[in-house]
Design brief:
By secondary structure, this protein is an alpha/beta fold. It is 43% helix and 19% strand. It contains twelve helices and eleven strands. Bound molecules: S-adenosylmethionine. The site of S-adenosylmethionine (SAM) has 24 residues, from helix 7, strand 6 and helix 10.
Length: 293
């Protein structure tokens, strides 16, 4: 038996000396607290409020095993098995990319589009391509209950298994149809809105990626050709040629910060009359393209 205070202090020290969690004490303390909170089932505030509470030997052993994995660089979200996205707790493991806060911008843009249509008395159809954990369509379905139905496609059956659990967890499994296939191949009908956060990191940049991303997140979810543009190019061409985007439709894609010019050039060629806007993320980098046909 030991106390909350003691195991937290020891866990934190192990993370600081490892230097894999950011070396700042604050980050190490937060990681240690989140891991202990996950293991004991007590909220972080309780750990603060009752530092003298006891932790069983079994809990302490589990805690230090997770601290060791964190020390090796494994992302916290995989260790605790979940990540908050758009206010929702999503299950995540190594089968899916950990949803990023930047992607919430895409959800907000998608909500603006579907709400304008719903307010006009229409029933917009949405398909999310490269859905991973299901973050985007689940956030849309939960936030906008007027949306009757969405499609969510991914080439990875393993990722779709996680998405299915998340749909059940948030009670939207009747409203989201999961489809396995390459890009738009499995989509059975034209839609009004295509959302996509597809892989856009170039294999050329692999060595620049943080090790906790490169060594733990699925490469199928990260990389797309040498410059990261291969899949986005193919997706846009297919969206144009497949007839799976309705007239007056919209595409929202998340992009890498150096990809705007190249992608806008292709979009101009594919849809000369489309209105295209780029949106920056919280750090000021180009992150999202809106394409209104
Ligand atoms: C960057 S992750 C994004 C996951 C999720 N949309 C999010 O924002 O957190 C990209 C996803 O695209 C999927 N993917 C990769 N290649 C694909 C393809 N050719 N067709 C469909 N999905 C693909 C991956 O399996 C992965 O789940």
């Amino acid at each position: 038996m030991t106390t909350v205070k003691d195991v937290l202090e020891q866990g934190m020290q192990r993370l600081i000396t490892a230097g894999t969690a950011e070396p700042e004490t604050r980050s190490a303390r937060l990681d240690a607290q989140l891991l202990l909170s996950h293991i004991t089932g007590n909220e972080r505030a309780l750990l603060y409020a009752y530092p003298e509470r006891t932790v069983s030997d079994e809990q302490a052993a589990t805690f230090f095993a997770l601290i060791e994995r964190r020390r090796q660089g494994e992302p916290l979200a995989y260790l605790v098995g979940q990540k908050e996205f758009y206010g929702l707790d999503l299950l995540v493991d190594q089968r899916v990319l950990i949803p990023r806060p930047e992607t919430e911008l895409l959800v907000e843009a998608a909500l603006r589009f579907v709400r304008a249509r719903l307010d006009a008395g229409e029933q917009p159809l949405v398909a999310d391509i490269g859905t991973g954990s299901g973050a985007i369509p689940i956030a849309l379905a939960v936030t906008e209950p007027r949306l009757p139905f969405l499609y969510a496609c991914d080439i990875s059956a393993a990722a779709l298994a996680v998405a299915q659990k998340n749909c059940q967890r948030h009670h939207v499994e009747q409203r989201i149809r999961l489809l396995e296939g390459d890009l738009l191949a499995a989509l059975p009908e034209p839609v009004d809105l295509l959302t996509a956060n597809l892989p856009y990191v170039g294999t050329e940049e692999m060595s620049l990626l943080a090790p906790d991303v490169r060594d733990y997140e699925p490469h199928l979810a990260l990389f797309s050709g040498p410059k990261g543009l291969g899949l986005l190019y193919r997706f846009l061409v297919e969206a144009r040629q497949s007839g799976k985007l309705k007239r007056r439709g919209c595409i929202l894609i998340e992009i890498g910060y150096q990809q705007r010019v190249a992608l806008m050039q292709l979009i101009d060629e594919l849809w000369p009359h489309a209105v295209i806007t780029a949106q920056q993320d919280y750090a000021g980098w180009d992150r999202l393209l809106h394409i209104y046909l």
